[in-house]
Structure formats: C-alpha cells, structure tokens
Amino acid sequence: MTHQNATSSPSRDLIIGAGPAGLTTAWELLEAGRPPPLVVEADSQVGGISKTINHHGNRMDLGGHRFFSKSDWVMDWWLRMLPLASPAGEVSLGYQQQTTHLSFPSSPVNPGEPTFLIRPRQSRIFFRGHFFDYPVRPSLKLMRQLGSLSVLRMGASYAAACLFPRKPERHLEDFLINRFGQELYRTFFKSYTEKVWGVPCREISAEWGAQRIKGLSVTAALKHALITPFHRAALGQKDTETSLIEQFLYPSLGPGQLWETVAERVQARGGQIKLQHKLIHLEHENARVTHAIVEDVNNRTRERIAVDHVISTMPVAELCSSLKPGAPRDVDDIASSLPYRDFVTVGLLVERMCIPSGRAGVNHRGMPSDNWIYIQEPHVRLGRVQIFNNWSPSMVAAAPNIWLGLEYFCHQGEIPWSMEDPQVIEFATRELASIGLIDFADVLDARVVRVPRAYPAYFGSYAAMDRVRNYFDTFSNLFLVGRNGMHRYNNQDHSMLAAKRAVEAIVSGSTDKSAIWAVNTEDGYHESN
C-alpha cells in the first residue's frame, strides 16, 4: 500500500464517521467559525444507521427514525435543514417556548424535493394473532383479546409492583416489573426484549430501561389515553413520553435525505467529506492526539494527517485498537469485549397483505396504518415489521404496492445473518406468511441489508465502561460522541446534542467532557436547550 506523508498545511479538526453525530459536529464547527473540518466515513454514503437504502426506487429506513425531540435546539436544527412540507390547514409547532401555529394552503409535495412531512404515529404488538395497542394498557378491548382473568392478574400485579417495588433495581427485569407489574412484563415484554438482545432480561443493565423507557408506565399510558381526546397535539410534545407521541417529522424520502442535505451544506462551506475512507491509527503523545492515519478502502493508500481536535463516532473497540501507543491492557480488554447486537433488515415488496380490510385502519389491500408492528410471536425470529408506505408515500416506487421492512436482531454468525441473501429472503418471507400477515405468492421483490454493531448492548463488559470512558477523557483534544462512539443506545437527537456539547467544549477551549456524557442520562436533559 502507498503511504503519503502529512502535508505542511495546518492541522485540522478531524471527524470520524458521517452519521448524525459526525455531520452535526461538522456543521456546528462551521457555524462556530472553526476552519472547515475533515470528515472520514468508511461507508459509501453518509447517514450511518440513519441512511436510506434505495432499492429499485423503493426506499428502506434501517430501524425506523422518527424525527421527534424534546430539545428546541434539535427541532429548530432539523427544520433549518429541511423545510416543512405544506399541509392543508393549521399546524401546531409546539416545540418552541411559545406554541406557534402556522397556516398553509393545500399543496402537493414534490417527491424529489427535500422536505419534512408531519406523520401520524401508530405502532402495535402482534401476539397470538391479534393486534394490541402499544404501550399496552388495561381496557375492555384487552379483556376481549386476552380474557378478563389475564387482565385482572395484570392489574393486580401492577398494584403489587406499585406497593412493593423491587429495590434496588439490579437489572432490566426489575426495572420493567416495577413499571408494568410481573404479569404484563411476562406477557408483553420479556420474550420480545430477549429476542432483541439475545440474553435474559436479568443480564441486561437497568440503565438501558432508564435511558430508553424512562417515565413510561401503565399509569403514564392510561393518563395519556384519557387526556388525548381533549388536547391538540403539537410536534414538541414535551410532556409526552417518547413511546406515546402522536406525530413526528419525517423526510419525504427517508432519514438519509436529511443527512445527505447536511453533507451537501457542509461541503458547500468548505468542509471535506471523504467517503470509503477509514481510520487506521491515531498517534498521540502527552495525552493529546497529534496525527491520524487514514486509508482509502478502494486503493489502500494511506495519508497521515495532523489534527487539532478529533471527534470520534466509531465503535469504541475500533477506536481503542487504533491508538499508537496502545491503550492500557485493562482498557483494551474491556473495549474489545463490549457487546453489540447486529441487525438484518429484509425489504419485501408485496401486492397485498392478509389482514381483513374490514378492520379499523386497514385498506383494501390489507395494509394497516401502523408505522411498525412488534412481532411478539415466540415461534418466529422476526422482531419487527416496518410499513414504509406509512412513513412516507414517496418511500414506495409504485403504489398501491406495499413495501415492508422485516427486522431481525442477531449476532454475526447466527440465523439469518449467516445465510446467503436468497435464503434470508425465503426465510423471512416464510416467517411473515406463517403468522398470517402476507401470502408467499404476493411477494414481488426483496432486498437484504446487514448492519453490524447496530445496537450497543448493556450487559457483559459494559459494566466496566466507565473505565474506558475515563481513559479516553484524559486526552485533551479527543471527544467521543454518537451511538457507537459512546457505546450508548442513543436516539439521533441525543447523538446530535452530544455533538453540540463537544463543539461547545472545543470552541471554549475546555477539556471537560462531562456535559457530553450527561446527555440523555436524566429526564430533564432537554430543558436547558
């Protein structure tokens, strides 16, 4: 391979990764008046897990990205990048300090124009051949579906959990039982959560629940159900738990459309984005990173770059192994064994679904109105189904075909990751047909996408993550942000806020990283933004 020496040009801010955290960092550095940064991205397109895959004009969102945040700053940031499509009537933009109402004339959306749509949110659980509201709450409908005795047991176990909560909350099972009761936990949470993570809930840290579920409980769900008919939904929904929001923003061509727009704007202002380039080494001395060795993955040429600051969104293990000199043995051992859950999504284009059209919200082709459906059935590996038509009509090349995303959570080497693509497609199709949602003969086209290290996990060596964090925090000019960069299962708005905190530290000359790590660790993180 060819090596190129560092040029005599001044050192620059280097951003590793062009996902939401990396591109937010690049833009905010430019906004703060810093010299144009360099972004290196190993993939062939920007966006990270928030990219959009285009398959014959049908677009896939990897995991489903609702653009919703309790942070005014994030909501403003998004809407400065993409305009809001012009819906008919009045729209409440209630994310700001004072609710703003905008009136728009009715006008069609140009499918090629980068815009945000306002989308209704609906997600349900499919279990025992029935659709259950998510979050689950005691109701007459639930009694009809499960039987009155089961619902009474759920109510009694929830009351017991309120009166005699498990203290301390040692693991995720304790966390979930305290908020939903043992019966509801065993019926709707245990098997699905273990399908997602591949380990028992007793082995997962309660911190995962505190970060992802926070204030959601049976009481919160019931309260929300009672007040929803009497208030007008606003985009901000600051007092609403994330799982209960009623609407959200969504780019007309999927989440990647936003990040492609951000990348174009960064480059228009002088920022450089090198796709299919990966970090090989970070050289450091005296607790400061001095140079980066970056490789072009196509021709294997390498470049040595002098750096001023480094903002990393790459997996912690890879960052640790890149250091020259290497990290202490104990830090390297922890970082290299941090657990992840890998992800396979199968796009299926079908003519119709098999849900009776007489049901509420189901169209004439058997398609329900859900954004996604949680598959609770224990006899299939399938975890969740996205209905891309309901995210944005422009995600589908030719309506009224239905474009589905079948999501599998696995480890590399497991089924379906280990299968060849045609086998994966057949396996996924048969699973969806076996639970009665489609007919095998109605499949028109398919695409398989594998995402390694999609979900940082909260078990195993994660318990010692603070040792890794403390070590990296000793580097004065190295900042860890983003989902993989911090080994946190963050939403994209949390990753953006961490990037914002990193830029604030760089601009102020601070080496204190505590504000970055504080993002999404408490319920009120958004109130100061």
Q: Describe it for me?
A:
The protein is of the alpha/beta class and 529 residues long. The protein folds into 3 domains: 3-50 and 257-338 and 458-518, FAD/NAD(P)-binding domain; 136-215, no CATH class; 340-456, Polyamine Oxidase, Chain A, domain 2 (Alpha-Beta Complex), CATH 3.90.660. The chain is 31% helix and 24% strand. It has helices at 20-31, 72-81, 140-146, 148-163, 172-180, 182-197, 206-212, 218-227, 255-268, 316-322, 329-336, 421-434, 465-472, 483-486, 492-508, 514-518, and strands at 3-4, 12-16, 38-41, 52-55, 58-61, 89-93, 100-104, 116-120, 123-127, 130-133, 247-251, 272-275, 277-285, 288-296, 302-312, 323-324, 340-350, 372-375, 384-387, 402-410, 443-456, 478-480. The strands form 5 sheets. Strands 1, 2, 3, 12, 13, 14, 15, 16 and 22 form a 9-stranded mixed β-sheet that branches. α1 (20-31) packs parallel to α15 (492-508), α5 (172-180) packs antiparallel against α6 (182-197) and α10 (316-322) packs antiparallel against α11 (329-336). It is globular and about 70 Å long. The two termini are 47 Å apart. Mean pLDDT is 87; it is low at 96-108, 220-232 and 522-529.
